[in-house]
């Protein structure tokens, strides 16, 4: 049989997880390959990019949608387990678990509307006949990028505080701060003085200094945390700071930084993962597509 689509894979995958044990994606791959009786040729079938097998890609997306719907959860990287919601779903003996089935879960709806930036969930699940191929490609790109960002944030939250410091160093250096990586590494994670986790040069010449607070937190960062950081900056007679967190900031915290003289940039978990993707931290390129059009200037003087 041909490689099943990811919607066909979701119910069998959830049933596998129904044993209550921890499973990796490779566990799912092995069991599902046998369940769908896939040949070696089918297992070796690659996407047009040639970077990933079609079956691995579809199993990965099935896992993503089940996770975003709260049916599976990452117990510890890279192991997934079924949730109580997942168990309840199986008790109802669904004929299939597809995107329409998942619309009953608020987390899934939020995930899809966030990815597609649309208020109409049904529209996001189908391709409009009015869309051009370029629009379809753009939407697919945003969908893949959004899923990558979500997975990145999970990975960052599961890493150690020391690793998080190193990640911040890599990111800031790739963005052009701190001079060399060695210079930046000596600064970040060394201060710990009055709410300051590190110090880094704004440019390679060291013309100005930026103070850093980097916290791998789960809870929301409020105004008191930012006030403490701002006070630490004043104590250093500094006026530039970056507060990086894996969580998010309250409205009061955001409003506070806009009302003070010090320039404090707030980087929440979502912004952090966007920067990681843009500056190639913790990600790798699997393929690229160059869209081309007719060069009208080339043919402008044609006979």
Can you characterise this structure?
With 303 residues, this protein is an alpha/beta fold. The chain is built from 15 helices and six strands. Strands 3-4-5-6 form a four-stranded mixed sheet. 50% of the residues lie in helices and 10% in strands. The longest helix is centred in the middle third of the chain and has 26 residues. The chain is globular, with a radius of gyration of 23 Å.
Descriptors for this entry?
single chain, 303 residues, alpha/beta, four-stranded mixed sheet, two-stranded antiparallel ribbon, 15 helices, 6 strands, globular
Topology, pairings included?
Layout: H1 6-17, H2 25-35, H3 40-43, H4 54-68, E1 72-76, E2 79-82, H5 84-91, H6 99-102, H7 106-116, H8 121-124, H9 133-158, H10 161-174, H11 181-187, E3 198-201, E4 209-215, H12 223-235, E5 240-245, H13 251-257, E6 263-267, H14 269-278, H15 296-299
Parallel strand pairs: 4-5, 5-6
Antiparallel strand pairs: 1-2, 3-4
């Amino acid at each position: 049989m041909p490689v099943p689509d990811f919607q066909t894979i979701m119910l069998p995958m959830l049933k596998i997880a129904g044993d209550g044990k921890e499973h990796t994606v490779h566990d799912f791959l092995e069991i599902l390959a046998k369940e769908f009786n896939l040949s070696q040729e089918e297992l070796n079938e690659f996407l047009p990019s040639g970077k990933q097998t079609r079956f691995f890609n579809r199993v990965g997306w099935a896992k993503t949608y089940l996770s975003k719907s709260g049916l599976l959860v990452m117990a510890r990287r890279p192991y997934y387990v079924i949730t109580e919601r997942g168990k309840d779903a199986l008790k109802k003996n669904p004929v299939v678990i597809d995107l329409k089935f998942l619309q009953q879960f608020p987390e899934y709806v939020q995930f899809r509307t966030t990815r597609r930036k649309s208020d109409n969930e049904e529209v996001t699940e189908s391709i409009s006949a009015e869309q051009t191929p370029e629009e379809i490609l753009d939407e697919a790109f945003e969908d893949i990028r959004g899923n990558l960002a979500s997975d990145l944030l999970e990975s960052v939250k599961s890493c150690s505080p020391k690793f998080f410091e190193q990640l911040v160093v890599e990111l800031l250096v790739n963005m052009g701060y701190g001079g060399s990586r060695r210079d930046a590494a000596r600064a970040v994670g060394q201060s710990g003085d009055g709410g300051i986790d590190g110090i880094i040069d704004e440019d390679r010449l060291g013309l100005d200094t930026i103070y850093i607070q980097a916290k791998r937190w789960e809870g929301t960062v409020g105004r008191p945390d930012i006030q403490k950081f701002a006070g630490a900056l004043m104590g250093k007679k500094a006026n530039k700071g970056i507060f990086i967190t894996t969580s998010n900031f309250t409205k009061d915290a955001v409003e506070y930084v806009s009302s003070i003289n010090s320039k404090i940039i707030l980087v929440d978990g979502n912004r952090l993962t966007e920067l990681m993707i843009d500056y190639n931290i913790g990600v790798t390129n699997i393929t690229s597509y160059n869209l081309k059009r007719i060069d009208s200037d080339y043919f402008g003087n044609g006979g």
